[in-house]
User: Which sequence fits this backbone?
């Protein structure tokens, strides 16, 4: 029995807007185990990003509970339990790549020698060694996003939350980064929450796929992947892969995602 | 060398054009006086005599460029810097008030901007007053500041610096409010995920992010500071400074003196703006924000 890292019970979140209340999340229940790679997939407005933001304590649920590492989400955030990767790399243009990765370390008060050691280690993890002293504009979009992943890894949080991190990149770069991400996950044994709107990406990466549907935002299916943890891009050609992708599509259809 | 001409060419052409225009205007404007003199002396002027006269009048309506250049040369190079007739001496008086006022204005502007960005109450209450302050003509406010401060025993440099500050803090406030608010929601969320406090967010994100805005404001601010210092010199009774030269010149109809003080002020302003521009380039290059 593996340890539960994130658990959501009857989670609801309603935004009050000028056009009336919007039910971003309604009665969401989910448990994420240590070491899982969980993808959240669904059409826009299904609450997948909102759910991730609730885990990160960037949004406060209207009702229900969320626990991260056995604490409330806000305690977990203050204990820096997770690293968060946003849709855009969001690197500071006035800091070098190394300086950007050092930023959370400076904020958290790591000592200088430790900072340098960690920056070197995570740069090596995302295969950006040698780019420490470059400025962000000198790197391609994919490299910038890798640097932002390195930044989220630098302070050794057990959980990595990623909100469509490769959404703005072209498919070739994306494939490459997906493969790298799996390697990184295998090496670091982190628990990863990954928001995407790409079915192949979700199936390729995940041990568990959470299919969500909109109005109100809810979970319509949770699919345990039968694919081995150690996988390469070739696995996408197998029948097993196609079957899982088919079930994701069915889940999306059942949630009226195609309406 | 081609690079140099490529850049300087348009500027030089423009200057030549302006000088030509200036000469033409001088002839046109000063001709009436020249003809008047000739009529009273019962002589008539040929065209070349007329042109020659318009360029060398003692109190022309519009002095010709060479007259202004001669006057500037006389009052800068030929006079001792300590002389009250030296434009450099007057320029320094104005410059010192400008720089002090600019320093005050920058500090006040940045502090107000921080207050406005971090406090909703200040955003609602201070900003309208900041804008109102700029709708009051500085010429009306300046004498009051001088008189009031003089009554409490403060005179000399400080009152002028305060008037100069009054003009220069405004662009700094507006630019810095915009700059400190420039970080987007994602960057602020990111800070939150690292559990960074308000002070950390200010020093690591908001302040560096605002630098390009600050420099744009500083350039406007320093020019406004100079105007403020000159205006501040007018009600003091034309004792010293470029403003005093302008006022004294207009009392005695010394148009050449007015124009040379004007040109001096313009050159000073251009120099100050260029200096800020240079500091901007060095700073932003060091920060990696200039590619």
Assistant:
């Amino acid at each position: 029995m593996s340890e539960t890292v994130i658990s959501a019970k009857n989670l609801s979140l309603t935004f009050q807007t000028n056009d009336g209340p919007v039910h971003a999340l309604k009665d969401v229940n989910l448990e994420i185990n240590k070491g899982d790679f969980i993808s959240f997939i669904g059409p826009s407005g299904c609450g997948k990003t909102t759910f991730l933001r609730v885990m990160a304590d960037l949004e406060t649920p209207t009702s229900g509970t969320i626990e991260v590492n056995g604490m409330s989400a806000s305690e977990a955030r203050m204990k820096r339990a997770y690293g968060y990767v946003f849709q855009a790399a969001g690197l500071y243009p006035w800091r070098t790549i190394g300086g950007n990765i050092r930023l959370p370390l400076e904020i958290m008060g790591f000592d200088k020698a430790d900072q340098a050691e960690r920056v070197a280690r995570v740069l090596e993890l995302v295969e950006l060694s040698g780019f420490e002293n470059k400025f962000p504009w000198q790197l391609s979009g994919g490299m910038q996003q890798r640097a932002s992943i390195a930044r989220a890894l630098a302070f050794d949080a057990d959980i990595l939350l990623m909100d469509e991190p490769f959404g703005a990149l072209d498919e070739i770069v994306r494939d490459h980064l997906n493969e790298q991400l799996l390697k990184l996950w295998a090496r670091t044994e982190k628990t990863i929450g990954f928001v995407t709107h790409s079915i192949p990406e979700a199936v390729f990466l995940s041990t568990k796929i959470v299919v969500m549907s909109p109005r109100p935002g809810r979970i319509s299916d949770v699919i345990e992947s039968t694919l081995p943890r150690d996988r390469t891009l070739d696995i996408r050609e197998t029948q097993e892969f196609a079957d899982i992708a088919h079930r994701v599509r069915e889940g999306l259809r059942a949630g009226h995602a195609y309406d | 060398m081609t690079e140099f001409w490529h850049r300087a060419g348009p500027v030089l052409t423009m200057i030549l054009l302006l000088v030509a225009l200036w000469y033409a205007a001088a002839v046109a404007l000063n001709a009436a006086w020249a003809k008047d003199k000739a009529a009273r002396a019962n002589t008539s002027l040929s065209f070349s005599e007329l042109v020659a006269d318009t360029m060398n009048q003692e109190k022309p309506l519009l002095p010709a460029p060479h007259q202004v250049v001669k006057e500037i040369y006389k009052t800068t190079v030929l006079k001792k810097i300590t002389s009250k007739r030296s434009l450099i001496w007057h320029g320094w008086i104005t410059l010192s008030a400008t720089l002090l006022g600019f320093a005050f204005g920058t500090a006040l502007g940045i502090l107000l901007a921080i207050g406005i960005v971090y406090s909703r109450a200040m955003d609602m209450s201070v900003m309208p007053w900041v804008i109102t302050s700029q709708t009051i003509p500085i010429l009306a406010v300046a004498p009051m500041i001088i008189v009031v401060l003089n009554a409490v025993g403060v005179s000399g440099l400080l009152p002028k610096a305060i008037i100069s500050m009054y003009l220069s803090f405004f662009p700094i406030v507006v630019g810095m409010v915009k700059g400190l608010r420039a970080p987007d929601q994602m960057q602020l969320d990111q800070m939150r995920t690292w559990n960074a406090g308000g002070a950390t967010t200010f020093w690591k994100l908001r302040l560096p992010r605002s630098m390009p805005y600050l420099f744009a404001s500083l350039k406007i601010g320093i020019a406004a500071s100079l105007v403020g210092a000159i205006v501040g010199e007018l009600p003091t009774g034309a004792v010293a400074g470029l403003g005093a030269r302008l006022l004294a010149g207009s009392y005695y109809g010394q148009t050449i003196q007015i124009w040379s003080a004007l040109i001096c002020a313009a050159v000073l302003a251009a120099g100050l703006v260029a200096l800020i521009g240079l500091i901007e380039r060095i700073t932003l290059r060091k920060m990696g924000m200039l590619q």
Notes: Residues 2-62 of chain B form one domain. The two ends of chain B are 24 Å apart (CA to CA). The mean pLDDT of chain B is 89.
